[in-house]
Amino acid sequence: MSTATPVTGTNAHPIHPAHTPTGQLSFGAFFQGVNSSTIWRLPDSGDQVAWESFEALIRTAERGKFAAFFLGEGLRLREHRGVPFELDVAGRPDAQTLLAALAAITEKIGLVATQNTTYNDPVDLARRLQTLDLLSEGRAGWNIVTTDNAWTGENFRRGGYLDHADRYTHAEAFVEIAQQYWRGESISHDGAHYSVRAQGDLPRSAQGQPVLFQAGASPAGQDFAARTADVIFSPHGTLEAAVEFRRSIAERTVAAGRDANSVKILPGAEVVLAATEEEADEKVRWVRDLQVGPEQAIALLEQYWGRDLSAFDPEGPLPDVEPEVVESGVTRGAGFQFAQAQDLTRQWREEAAQKGQSILEFARVKAGSRRGTFTGSYDAVADRLTEFARLGAIDGLNITPWLIPSGLDDIVDHLIPRLQERGVYPADYAGSTLRENLGLGPR
Amino acid sequence: MSTMTDHPSIAARADAPGAPQNPPCGLPVLAVDLVTDPALLGGLADLARGLDKAGVGALTLSDGGLHPIQVAAHLAPLTRAIALLPRTDAVYVEPFHLATQLMSLDHISHGRAGWLLTAETDPAVPATVGRTTLDLAATSREAADVLEASRLVWDSWAEDAVVRDTVSGVYVDASRLQYADFEGETFSVRGPAITPRSPQGLIPVLLADTDRAAAGERVAAELADGRVLDLDVSTGTHLEAASDALATALAGEQGPVVRLVRLVGLDLEADPLGTVTQLAAALRDRGLIAAAPDAGQSLREQMGLPAAAHSNDPARRSDRARLTSKDLA
Is pTM beyond 0.90 here? Predict the structure, then answer.
């Protein structure tokens, strides 16, 4: 919890000489539809695929002047030990099909689709994104993701054709073709991965081109984002991490020949709020308990141990057995590499033993630590975010609600008014396009 | 697994209050064709709303630049009863994406989605995705493969796969999911879908006579759910003559059932709503087309197609990795 006193005005000493803090925040609402972050065990937890859930969520976000509504996507259903993963929410509508519909019931909020460069054709994807941009009158965004795993490729024509090392060169060629299409150019591309002939034949949208989002987590990903993206959203929950990340991105953006202010940083975040600090502490524990149950805690460890751990007591210490090599585990994109598994599991056992944590307690802390959580009383979180904004560490947050569809209610009703009072959150939309509402220049 | 008798849309039908006054009778559904030309975007929403209120059964969306599936999705929340059928290619596409997009349209429209299948023959299209142009026979085989793969993806989740069992901690029951495991001539699809089963389960797939040559006889006669007959209204509408022409066409038809009568060439400048309303009334008076749909009625119901229950194929079940060989025997 931050107890820092808010400073007034933006900081006189910018984090990076080429970066000028705006002192303003924009919010995105990040519907994940996967992972343990979304609680499904409560009576208030709505249907994860029903139109009514999305309608309610986006209306709340637009009431709160959120700049963007952001949909995740994964092109293969998650599996665990060779079977579709049963314990978390699963199953989403196609991102762009859903956003095209949501465009009809909203007016200002941006509509951002996560779309994969490895398993799409660039002209087809560019055309669909431009359709969304035209249907929404300039509110489309594209979260660019890449994957190299052959396991996802089993759903697609080319299978797993891409080497890990080629992910970003491939993605850059893909984005370049898309941008040619958006500019209405005649495309004649013969590269390492594509031979494409096409003509961009749709009119330009109100914002010129869709806004490009990128997670930008790894150094290679940061460089790719610095060269290509308008918005970066990997999570940085502490001020120190966010400041360091801003510095790194500003440096890389300048090195790529772009204005350091042309890349906005909206870290992925989870927000848990209550009227008082004590209630917020209690609430975040309650949220964690509901997010990660005993079965999920065991499953989390099984991902790294690569073996059946169902015989272990979730209330007991971490398993004292060695991890196993599971060949197929590497293809799952879950970050499991056996070479590291032995070290990692040993490290985790020591860490949990030192802190006296059970499997369940350990898994809840681990799962929560990935989310960039902002938790506290309404005022404390507002103060903390105000400090982030005035220092220029971030340009906003991309918030994953832990409950669908009511998970944005307290943010919109209690946090945003406080941020507006502190002068760091817009009273209304700045314009009608996503570019305008994120403070981005034209493309 | 669900059977016909416990399928909610069938069981609730007979005497539930607010049940449609028009039970399935097998008459073709009246559709109006709109072109997804970006220049027409400004008037599209109002026209779709008007046609929905006027009791037109369906909209078909022909590709005029904007992606037809997304335009259909955009119109879904603006309309209540009218079915939405994008006309899209089954050849130079990623089958998994296409299947996902269509089942998402079905979710968003609460069961009003259909697919007007075409098999692309324009050589400019394969060049946009870096593929070579297939000859006519290969085009037809590819269209059939993509249709079959799509249906396996659509059918990969049982109706009740999302169990939300707070006692066992299970959200989705893997034993109620199955792989598509489709192996075609040029591609394969593993599955299961990344989207839960859509309201109609299997989305109706229709084929216009004009697309029959490229899509091939297998799609036309064996795989598609029915035919689309066109009624050209571009030279003005003489109600009597149009009704006679349709009656003659329907009477002379053999083979696949005509499920859709599509008005093409509607003049959007000259009171399109009035034209369609009059024509619909005239055709309904003669008993040539189905009655106006009710809000909440699925396209399958409008067209008199039976509900599509999950196929539940044990050989495809996606939890088999944790079963012993004894369980599977």
Answer: yes
